[in-house]
Amino acid sequence: MDLLFVARGPRVALIYYFSDLVRGAAAATATFLLAERFDGIGAWTKPQVLFLLGYALLVRLLIDSFFNYNLAHVSRRIGRGQLDHLLIQPQPLWMALVTEGFAPVTGTGMLLPSAILLGAAGQQLNLIFSPGWCLQFIAYLVASITVVLSFEYAWASIAFWAPRAAEEINSHTWDLLQALTPFPLDGLSGWALGSLLTVVPAGIVAWYPSRALLGLAPLAWPDAAVAPAAAVLFAAFAAWIFTRGLHHYGRTGSSRYLDYGHRR
Amino acid sequence: MRLPEDAYLKTASMAAAAFFDTPFFLLEYALRFLRVLVLLALWRTVFASHATGSMTLPQVLTYTLIAEVFAAQLNLRTSLNDAMWDGTLVIRFLRPMGLIRQLAAEMAGRWSIDLVLFSLPLFAIAPLLGVDPRPASPPHAILFITSLALSIVVGLALEQFSGAIVVAFEQPVWLVDYVRVAIATVLSGQLLPLAYYPAGIGELFSWLPFAATTWAPLAIYTGAGNPPLLIATQLFWGITLWPIANWIWRANREKLASYGG
């Protein structure tokens, strides 16, 4: 499907790709410039900040590549009544969700900035990519992606009950996470930091894993396990509320369209 | 058709009422509040280890807070994109009012709610966040008002320019919007004062139109810039951009096609 989009009009696909590239670069710019100007931010050296930014963009890249076409903004699908398109497919919903959002071509706009940042950081930090470190890196990546998607799906579930009002709720929740992810959060007060690790888990997406991977946090097991444990908890909550919403949807269906086809 | 005298006021009032169509604007406020907390903490961390720079810590903290207090004006958005996206721009063309004027009226209506629900409360609690929200001096406050008005003029011109680009090049609305937001974030000084950009980049950016929308008023407010020069730059961009944006829009508006609904 994604290749078809490119084949139909490479010009449009290229523009989309370029826009993603610009957005990726812009998302990291403020923190990058600050780190460049001051040769780091607090306890974070410049290469460590580069790693944090590269990691944050990599999480976004993977979500864009595997959960594209509004699957990471699922409130739009639910709110517009488009979930039916998935439900009528002869496969379980989870399988449809996992397969339909695959966009290996158009979803990779963040690849270049992410690769440059991670590559530069790896070189300057002399990171040793031992099998253990790589496994930990992958585990944290999966945890970060799970946290973002769980946050999105939990909020999107509101659209089952209020499709019109909540259709765009994932735009807000997405911005909420993405805007706060590429910052080292060390200087925040206790309650603000607590909020960014629980209510709005932006800190778990990149800051916490980067600290652990770079050895900025003690690698005692409770600390190292925070991000994966949080991912499991967020996923469980999202699955619970999404399933409840789906049951409600099963009874009511979509109420967004009038009998003659127009959207309410 | 003769337009009622308070037509624009009524438009603004209707837009303000529509603000509460969904309660999810609270999420946006949460984002803005958390962002300001994160940025304030970031600046304190930076200054704790590097006590240098062309602005003092209190200046930077005030800059960061005021940028969020006036975010709606400094990075202004009308509903032009939404109207192009959902096709209601056609209805706006039918109204006996100028397109940009009615969009500006709607925007002002939304600002009134934003002011009461977010900007004033944030300004009021600034001391609790350890920030002095006052301008550098009373003359700076007066110059800030002038600069903010010019920032709105330049911002509206950029908005029309961006809409004209969408129509002229027949590009998806949101695509152009994403790129514009990304570029503006970097060039305007919205997140980071231009004075803190490395190796003279900030000085270069300060001559561009995006800086005229954000950096100029905030630099005046915090006493970090030269007010006559900043206001002159804003005037230049206001005078230059409007005719260009108008011309591109008028030359291309008949190309407009929308499939919304």
Describe this structure in words.
The complex is a heterodimer of chains A (264) and B (261). Chain A is globular and about 60 Å long. Chain A has a two-stranded antiparallel ribbon. Chain A is mostly helical. In chain A, helix 8 runs antiparallel to helix 11 and helix 8 packs antiparallel against helix 13. Chain A has one domain. The two termini of chain A are 29 Å apart. Helices cover 72% and strands 2% of the residues of chain A. With 261 residues, chain B is mainly α. Helix content of chain B is 70%, strand content 0%. In chain B, helix 8 runs parallel beside helix 13. The chains are: A mainly alpha (264), B mainly alpha (261). At the A-B interface, helix 2, strand 1, helix 11 and helix 12 of A face helix 2 and helix 9 of B.
Key traits:
heterodimer, A: 264 residues, mainly alpha, two-stranded antiparallel sheet, 2 strands, B: 261 residues, globular
Give the helix proportion of chain B (percent range).
Answer: over 70%
Distance N to C terminus of chain B: 28 Å
Which parts of chain B are unreliable, with pLDDT below 50 for 5 consecutive residues or more?
none
What oligomeric assembly is this protein in? Answer: heterodimer
Largest interchain contact: A-B, 45 and 37 residues
